[in-house]
Amino acid sequence: MSTSDRRSADWFGAEGRNGFIHRSWMRNQGFGPEVFDGRPVIGIANSWSELTPCNAHLRDVAEAVKRGVWEAGGLPLEFPTMSLGEPLMRPTTMLFRNLMAMEVEETIRANPLDGVVLLSGCDKTTPAQLMGAASVDLPAIMVTGGPMLNGKFRGRDIGSGTDVWRLHEEHRAGKLSAADLTEAEGCMSRSRGHCMTMGTASTMACLAEALGMQLPGSAAIPAVDSRRYALAQAAGRRAVELVEEDLRPSRMLTRAAFENAVMVNAALGGSTNAVVHLLALAGRVGVALTLDDFERLTRDIPVLVDLMPSGRFLMEDFYYAGGLPVVLGELADHLDLGQMTVTGATWKDVLDGVQCWNREVIRTVDEPVQEAGAGTAVLRGSLCPDGAVLKVSAASPGLLEHRGRALVFDRVEDYTAVCDDPDLPVDPSTVLVIRNAGPRGYPGFPEVGNVPMPRVLLEAGVEDMVRVSDARMSGTGYGTCVLHVAPESAAGGPLALVRTGDEIELSVAGRKLDLLVAPEELERRRAAWQPPERPGERGWQRLYVEHVLQADRGADLDFLTGSSGHGTPRHSH
């Protein structure tokens, strides 16, 4: 791309008053006139925030990126983006993913940028930045912040999220004291970085790499490893080259790339949240990805990675074993390795010579952790006509074929208020139903699908039960949890019609979830059903509820689907 064709030239190369304004105000930061010589201007979209613990080190990562941009002859300009901290934000970060994506998109488009480096880490920050950048389609490269080091507690590894649920349930069952739990708190998150389990943060980092948007081998590098900062510097250099080559996200984010990512997620035993985020990202670039594609593409893909919550190890071990390139190499017969990456080379070229250094952590296709079909199952049936998902690798084998009577709660808070009640009418066959927790119903589609087990069952030694909801589940969570039921109950889906005592049948082998109630009875219930009363909404929440799509379409806003391009806005001076 010639210097005069760059977007930034319309700002910094302008003659007269407009050019004077753009250059002179930038010089209050100490820039000399030579930086306005037509070199590529690279934005660094930084989701740093002390309210987002997973991303709290990204200012240091940004400095490494800047070194690379300067080194390659570009001008780095860092800017903040909204930051979504999974551990702290209420009611749920998912309520704000689309807002962050919109902010990223508009900030990139409105400013004199020729390319952008996306700095993310926590669960929703990665898909939000990808969605925003893909919508603008300027040259872009992602740098995720990396996972924490393995947690260490009393001689064993513990994993963020996964062991939160496990240790807390042990505490509720009387097996672990409050002092033990407090001790574990200080042992789990012992370094900078995002969750070191294969939760949503690690899953989305790996899928950003699989989509070709991160430098190969980068997703799994621990946040505190010096190689993370060397990688960030390399990404800064590469961002300048992307502008010169005019290599844009639309070259990477093709139909085949999304199909690769779906299969990689299955092999990772990745988060069910990846389904929602991939559907939304595909919608931004006009790729018609559907839930049926997840079922079709993953039928023959085994789980190859032995990481929590489905397995034993953590992201630090995954990196030392060779990381995502090893997984891609193992799946070579299933993937389209002709897909472009941000390196400018295809996966076929990138994977040449890749080796695995620990076959306990990353298995072969011939000797997998779990057989094909153990990733995310897509269910259909009378209770979820538009689909639902279940993470087979994190579920209990004995519950994958199950029939039981429903115990229904209209709000998750109603259940948590009574889950410790010794008289709660549950037994191991009960199907726990939580509704009004979908995109519109909560609102925001929270991670409450793996609600705590009833205490009465825990004390009896029962560790899992079938749970059905229109909610999501943390990628670090586990259990036999049917999620993302669509349409959601607040939109009048069949979940809204379930009553306590109804029989529900789950067949993962048959990919079915059915409400065993006569159609005429359901019609009577539907005639009497009233949508839940919506609270007094304003601002973003009101806009979200009025425009959010259902889970099977990625829960994006209806007016944000499709790329809108990077045209230079009109100036006002």
UniProtKB/TrEMBL annotation:
Dihydroxy-acid/6-phosphogluconate dehydratase C-terminal domain residues: 360-555
Entry EC number(s): 4.2.1.9
Domain of life: Bacteria
Keywords (A to Z) from UniProt: 2Fe-2S, Amino-acid biosynthesis, Branched-chain amino acid biosynthesis, Iron, Iron-sulfur, Lyase, Metal-binding
Top EC class, one word: lyase
GO molecular function: 2 iron, 2 sulfur cluster binding; dihydroxy-acid dehydratase activity; metal ion binding
Coiled coil: none
Pfam families: ILV_EDD_C, ILVD_EDD_N
InterPro entries: Dihydro-acid_dehy_C, DiOHA_6PGluconate_deHydtase_CS, ILV_EDD_C, ILV_EDD_N, IlvD/EDD_N, Sugar_Degrad_Dehydratases
Domain Dihydroxy-acid/6-phosphogluconate dehydratase N-terminal: 39-349
BP GO annotations: branched-chain amino acid biosynthetic process
Family classification: Belongs to the IlvD/Edd family.
Name used for this protein in its record: Dihydroxy-acid dehydratase
Species for this entry: Amycolatopsis endophytica
